Amino acid sequence: MRMKLVPDNTNFDFFKFMPITFGASMLAMVVSVVLFFAVGLNFGIDFLGGTTIRTESPNAVDVGEYRQALAPLDLGDVAITQVFDTSFDSSQHVAQIRIQQQEGHEAITPETIKSLEAALQTVDPDVTFPSVESVGPKVSGELVWTAVEAVAASILAVLFYIWLRFEWQFSVGAVVALIHDVTLTIGIFCLLQIRFDLTIIAALLTIVGYSLNDTVVVFDRVRENLRRYKKMDLKEVLNVSINETLSRTMMTSFTTLLALFGLYILGGDVIRGFVFAMIWGIVVGTYSSVFVASPVLLRLGVKRDWSKPSQGGGTQFSNVDA
Amino acid sequence: MLHFPFWKRLLIWGVTIVILLMAVPNVFYGRVERHNDAVKTIESSGETPELAADAAGWPSWLPSGLVNLGLDLRGGAYLLADVQVADVYADRMNGLWPGVRDVLRAERDTVGAIRRVDGPPDELHVKIANPDGMARAMELVRGLSRPTVSLTGVGSNDIEVSGQGDTIIVKLSEAEKRATDDRTVQQSVEIVRRRVDEVGTREPSIQKQGETRIVIQVPGIGSADELKNLIGTTAKLTFHPVVSRTSEAGADPGPGNLLLPSMDENGVHYIVDQSPVVSGDELNDAQPSFDQNGRPAVSFRFNPTGARKFGDYTRDNIGSPFAIVLDNEVISAPVIQDHIPGGSGIITGNFTIEASNNLAVLLRAGALPAEMTFLQERTIGPELGQDSIEAGRIATLVAFAAVLAYMFLSYGLFGLFANIALIINVGLIFGLLSLIGATLTLPGIAGIVLTIGMAVDANVLVFERIREELKTARGPSRAIELGYEKAMSAIIDANLTTFITAVILFALGSGPVRGFSVTLALGILTSVFTAIYVTRLIIVMWFERRRPKTIEV
């Protein structure tokens, strides 16, 4: 007896509720954009410049006391958050302190860090500083740009690749799904105010890759079925294809999520945000390959005459022999 | 037909085993690391029994390449430095001045008296008394220019000479500036490396980034601050004739002179000649030592040219003071007692033992050609790194176990085959990481975990396809074959797109993001390899042996 996420021979009509699902997706995107402009992302120092200091102490952290100790140093905006993690011992109390970019300095001066450390040690003599990170304004500005470039470049590269391998309609469908996933991920980061730093960009790009992976598998089947069922309605072909690949889609998403949840729970707080972005991305990416990419393809229509496969650049590797 | 020619089988298992062997050292990380360190030390400074024992701890015929642990896993310091390349322009102009002075003096009749006047630091302004001689003067100065030595600057000269009234303005040409920038950064990288090596930490990484930046990563060092102390000082040592001593901080040094503060005596300033007699570039060696009163000092020895200049100067100027200047501060200004012919001497000042040690290291490693500013820095404590490794290891194992169990529950025997391939896959990733000497970072571990999840995708695609093909029932052999054949297109497309994003991440990312992209890209390669060759070969071998009439996937 096999464990199965999806029963054999499903025959769901994925377009029955298309106005609702597609509408919900669009609404979620709009909400994300609104959140981005209204609330904004909780940028880390990678993008804002400034310094973060991680403190660790056997004594309980009193954020209020920390704040009071730092107030006389006149450091501007100081954010202090306590960090909790299942991997910590009961005698491990960790906090993260973020200081904004100091006026007129490329990077924070060692004197500032020393005075800050000294101030905290008056509150708690056992406190240690396992990590200190500082980013100057010049670099943070550049990092923002490279990040935007990286996301844009990967979307373009993928657009081009799919256009090469399929038809342009597929490529548009895939990219709409991609933009959907990236937007929703940024939206959730705005909503939950999780720190958005350079590694999250890496997660975003991975989501781009994963979401695509999913979409491409569905599209690949669509292409195959378009050849097989020449007379069938496009909507039917899409439905059949999604149903046929549904088992695989769920299976892969599930194993990936299984692995990621392991990392989320046990991997420590340093990469938790990163793993969260990926988990979210995979859920959204799986959804979008079915409920966003396919409706776009349906709306755009597709060339049905596949009798001359060499035209239009739709190359296939299916005859690659292993 | 499920036919695999013999040579292909041999090749697949061969490649797999070789790469897996490369992964083996990582299982015995501590022992192999000691072995590698010991071998290196024996090579450079001879054998001791302890080192030999360490070296013998790992057989030398086995591969000994390890996956480097990134700073976030090992602890250490990271700095992003910007080299102030423009500093060098001023030095070049100062170096040019004596030459310009000499050629113009030789033609005093046409150009009249000359003197250097103040201008921007990267320009040399020379005023001549007889403006009618401008054309001739400019011609003479132009005669000093040399062709630019660089690939891009072929055909252009190193300096540009222009006239403004009675003033000649000399500056570096754009091509020369670019060539100079490049040399300055290269030199800085070299000197930073020498300084870090002098301190002797393990596997520091010092790389040029972009036009004028240097990324410095030193594992095991206590803090970025410590690292900055080591590499942040230019350590430019020069010996200048002293013009006078003053206590006025705002005194006018006069043309051609510099006003420099004293390092130890508060409020005291020296006015010294701008052009040094000798500089630290001409040092052969520097060692910490003690002066005749037993106070810490630094002894030094010049190379032959430096020794000659130093000897000539001390011979001609007995009785007058000269200043020993380090980074624009006067360490001391002793009076020359005697002719010093041998080219060696001693620097005394108010040093602690540590400071004299440090100065000797800096002088030996050489001065930085330009100052550096620090744009980004990071210190990671070793305990945090250890915690991260521990958490990463547990998370990876749990993720691994969960996926293995789930695959077996879903696909039975075929799931077991996929699991063998998955285990091989992770081994291959580590083997390849060791082979290319990549650095494993925390996001890199996340990349591996993600790969574990996604690696089964190719197998899932194939297995699902085989299930479908089984329904049309043309026998298990045919179903397996068709399953692989038809899933191939989706496998290639799906993985290539992910691979594209990994490549873009690598190209545009830096630091931890790069570490992630490397493991992701390698993970894609190995998972495709294991899915379409290793799993398939296992299935074929099983099939040949059992010849089942029906299969269940």
A few lines on this structure:
The complex is a heterodimer of chains A (322) and B (553). Chain A is 60% helix and 10% strand.
Structure description:
The complex is a heterodimer of chains A (322) and B (553). With 322 residues, chain A is of the alpha+beta class. Chain A has 2 domains: 18-43 and 140-300, Multidrug efflux transporter AcrB transmembrane fold (Up-down Bundle), CATH 1.20.1640.10; 50-135, 2-Layer Sandwich (Alpha-Beta Plaits). Chain A contains 10 helices and 6 strands, in the order αβαβαββαβααβαααα. In chain A, the strands form 2 sheets. Chain A has a 4-stranded antiparallel beta sheet with strand order 3-4-2-5. In chain A, strands 1-6 form a two-stranded parallel sheet. In chain A, helix 6 runs antiparallel to helix 10. Residues 310-322 of chain A have low confidence and may be disordered. With 553 residues, chain B is α+β, with helices and mostly antiparallel strands. Chain B folds into 3 domains: 6-26 and 383-546, Multidrug efflux transporter AcrB transmembrane fold (Up-down Bundle), CATH 1.20.1640; 86-176, Gyrase A, domain 2 (2-Layer Sandwich); 236-349, Gyrase A, domain 2 (2-Layer Sandwich). Chain B has helices at residues 6-27, 29-45, 49-56, 71-74, 86-106, 108-111, 134-142, 174-199, 224-231, 304-316, 353-365, 382-435, 442-471, 476-508, 512-546, and strands spanning 68-69, 76-83, 114-117, 123-128, 159-164, 167-172, 205-209, 213-219, 237-246, 257-261, 269-273, 278-279, 283-290, 296-302, 322-326, 329-332, 344-348, 372-380, 439-440. In chain B, strands 9, 10, 11, 12, 15 and 16 form a 6-stranded antiparallel beta sheet that branches. In chain B, strands 7-8-2-18 form a 4-stranded antiparallel beta sheet. A 4-stranded antiparallel beta sheet of chain B has the order 3-4-6-5. In chain B, a hairpin with a 5-residue loop joins strand 13 and strand 14 (296-302). Chain B is elongated, with a radius of gyration of 34 Å. At the A-B interface, strand 5, helix 5, helix 7, helix 8 and helix 9 of A face helix 9, strand 18, helix 12, helix 13 and helix 14 of B. Strand 5 (128-135) of chain A pairs antiparallel with strand 18 (372-380) of chain B. Chain A: Residues 117-301 form the Protein export membrane protein SecD/SecF C-terminal domain. Chain A: This is Protein-export membrane protein SecF. Chain A: It is a multi-pass membrane protein. Chain A: Forms a complex with SecD. Part of the essential Sec protein translocation apparatus which comprises SecA, SecYEG and auxiliary proteins SecDF-YajC and YidC. Chain A: One of its GO terms (molecular function) is protein-transporting ATPase activity.
